Amino acid sequence: MINIHNLHASVESEGQMVEILKGLDLNINPGEVHAIMGPNGSGKSTLAAVLSGKEGYEVTEGKVTFKDQDLFEWEPEERANEGMFLAFQYPIEVPGVSNANFLKEALNEKRAYQGLEPLKAGEFLKLVREKAKLVELGDNFISRSVNEGFSGGEKKRNEIFQMAVLDPEFAIMDETDSGLDIDALKIVANGVNSLRDDNRSFLIITHYQRLLDYIIPDYVHVLMDGRIVKSGGKELALKLEEQGYDWIKEEVGVA
Amino acid sequence: MSDEQQLLEEFTSKEYEYGFVTEIEEDRIPKGLNEDTIRLISAKKNEPEWMLEWRLNALRTWQKMTEPNRPNVTYHKPDFQEITYYSAPKQKPQLNSLDEVDPELLKTFEKLGISLEEQKRLTGVAVDVVMDSVSVKTTFRDELKKHGVIFCSFSEAIQDHPDLVKKYLGTVVPTADNFYAALNSAVFSDGSFCYIPKGVRCPMELSTYFRINAAGTGQFERTLIVAEEGSYVSYLEGCTAPMRDENQLHAAVVELIALDNAEIKYSTVQNWYPGNEHGVGGVYNFVTKRGIAHERAKISWTQVETGSAVTWKYPSCILKGDHSIGEFYSVAVTNNRQQADTGTKMIHLGKNTKSRIVSKGISAGKSDNSYRGLVHISKHAEGAQNYSQCDSLLMGDQCGAHTFPYIENKNSTASIEHEATTSKIGEDILFYFNQRGIDTEKATEMIVNGFSREVLDKLPMEFAVEAKKLLAVSLEGSVG
Ligand SMILES: Nc1ncnc2c1ncn2[C@@H]1O[C@H](COP(=O)(O)OP(=O)(O)OP(=O)(O)O)[C@@H](O)[C@H]1O
Ligand SMILES: [Mg+2]
Q1: Contact status, residue A51 vs residue A74, Cβ threshold 8 Å
Q2: Which of A158, B159, B182, B199 has its Cα between 20 and 30 A from that of B452?
């Protein structure tokens, strides 16, 4: 699905380029769920931003292939229409544009990209209702402006809802669990689990192994100082939860 | 270049979509302004003596006035002796079918996507085309006649309905009201006149498309709408102008009179040439629009303003009658070096009068967009209510948005509410759209339409479509 090789990326900060990703390797096959954990500021969101094509990041070295093609050849919207979805750590409020309008446009852009006709209003509504149930968002929020005035938890659920409607092949979830109460966490996890299948891959960024109790990952990686420094199975998350990151720092020798 | 930066650059360098010139032979008088000019205009139009006197009186008033300095806008003041005050298509105005209309003109309308044929066939809108001052074509007159509705050019009204014109002309916007109103009163070329008899609901939307055509020709439209007791009319005005290097002055006067229980809806879509990205050329739009609402009458102004180099315009309502209502819904887009200072005045004189103001300003490029609103509650306006909402949308950080709400309240029982917001289309919002597969251009269009929706919803259907198109066109190609 996605193959990241020796990825180096910098951001500009106060006139200087600062390297954040420093040779990151990661390979995700179709159907796999990978979790990434790591201390604050280690570069997790930066990875998500670089993959999805956000402005302001410069890839200085390395290679990323998405569906066997050079990812960086594509504009952000093309990556999206190719099936990449990013659930934002901080979902954006868009005043004046309704959830329904936003999603309809997104969906139809994707369909156009695939050479399909736009969805008829009735079909769209049916789809949206069905997916809204998945994340237990009421019908009325469909007509509200995107994320405007949503609670933190509602915003996160809205991201999963959009994901469900847009049906991506590769979804990156950046701390979708942060700020969720325990019921919402289950709702989000159920939403994700219902989307899991042999062709869809997930990259789940989280600080808490709790989420991984509900979404059982195939792999857990530790991102530290811009690199994946350790990989393992679900038990790695448990160990991190108990012991923190110090033992890894010692093991791999990063400060 | 960041997305936002790029968006701005391209938005800014967007060429004027409707910049073309229609080649129609013209009949014009020499430049300059004095009593002879007025006599000549009046004679060309074959006007009665009282009209000439009214114009001359206005000229004398104007000559004693000095051009005011506008707050928040800067421009080269027009040289009033360099303007041609009358130009009319040579073609004879009274036509019976579209076949008789100059094909050049028809082509122009086609380019604008508002061909008369379409208009007539699809929408049933009566179109009174004002092309450089003289009405070229009026349709649906018969249908309107059945209901006793008068809808004609101002010149015709002077000939055919002198009593009505005499009774109402200058009653809402007196000659001496302001510099440009005085000028207009002296030299107005043509415009529309509309009269709805008592208790009649006008059977169709009345629409006029204004165009400024001849280079250096000032345009001085005069519109007068009288809605008798219990009547209703919805009037639509829309305009686009050809690309020009010289500044073109437009100083129209619109007067609305809503008698007891009458309602007038006045909608404008304005897209005059705004000048190029360096601020060269473009139309100066100094309009005086005002309506008076008698008892339980209602006046709504709705406007979508995307054009002009300099706009200075405050459609206003004098809420004279008890329980009368005034509304103002506005979207003003400024771009490049455009300057707009617009807003409204709600003058509450009667008891339990209500006004509602919704102003949406969109600024891009290096433009400046100001809202200036006055809510005046007089001593006698017991229980008056006003609600104002002024929202600004900034595209980038080189443009400006300013809000100046003035409130004069002389009655303690009044309730006045004012809300204002400012938001910015930033990279984060655009990236959010991009990540959902929506490109920046489409995203901008959605945001702008969303931002303006409350106002667009107030426009009659067929006009709303055109207005949306206009907003999209001003944004089209804004992202590469
Ligand atoms: N646009 C930017 N300008 C300056 N510095 C940045 C920018 N983006 C990221 N950084 C810096 O890069 C580093 C990595 O940030 P990133 O957001 O990727 O961390 P993270 O692993 O997601 O952290 P958290 O767990 O707190 O979300 C931080 O030091 C951050 O300050
Ligand atoms: Mg982060």
Answers
A1: no
A2: A158
